[in-house]
Specification:
This protein has helices at 7-57, 61-76, 115-118, and strands at 87-93, 101-109, 126-133. The protein is α+β, with helices and mostly antiparallel strands. The chain has a 3-stranded antiparallel sheet, with helices on one face. The protein is rod-shaped. It starts with 6 loop residues before the first helix and ends in a 9-residue tail after the last strand.
């Protein structure tokens, strides 16, 4: 017993398959384009957290900001981050006194993969930040 297909049904199946294949390709490109942003956000979060920890634990207020900025940049430039092409900014607001809050802000702008292929625009700046209080018992603020 043989199955007979009408000419129109076979053409419709080919068109649906081609459409599905293109949709699958676009979804794959979209997922691949998301990877640099995710990696940049992860590195920025780690840097902001490390920065805030150094900021809160430094016993010397004059070096608190300097140490926090250094550890943030070391975290961002580490080999594990694999974020080539990402631009970063680090801003630190040190605590103004014992037990007062300080803030570390790491902003990033990741490149958009397949920009020319998909016609996407360049993404804007995103930020990750942490607030921490200086440890009163360690600080020599006078």
């Amino acid at each position: 017993m043989s199955v007979r297909h009408r000419k129109g049904e076979r053409g419709q199946a080919l068109a649906e398959t081609a459409l599905f294949a293109m949709l699958a390709v676009l979804m794959a490109f979209g997922l691949l384009a998301w990877i640099p942003t995710h990696r940049a956000r992860t590195a920025a979060t780690a840097a902001a957290y490390a920065c805030s920890q150094f900021l809160s634990q430094s016993p010397d207020p004059s070096r608190a900001r300097h140490n926090a900025v250094n550890v943030a940049w070391r975290t961002l430039n580490a080999d594990w981050s694999a974020t080539a092409g990402v631009q970063y900014r680090v801003q630190v607001s040190p605590p103004s006194g014992p037990g007062m809050p300080g803030r570390c802000l790491v902003s990033f702008q990741a490149p958009t993969l397949f920009d020319g292929l998909l016609g996407l625009s360049h993404g804007g700046w995103n930020s990750e930040w942490f607030i921490s209080r200086s440890e009163t018992w360690k600080a020599r603020w006078r």
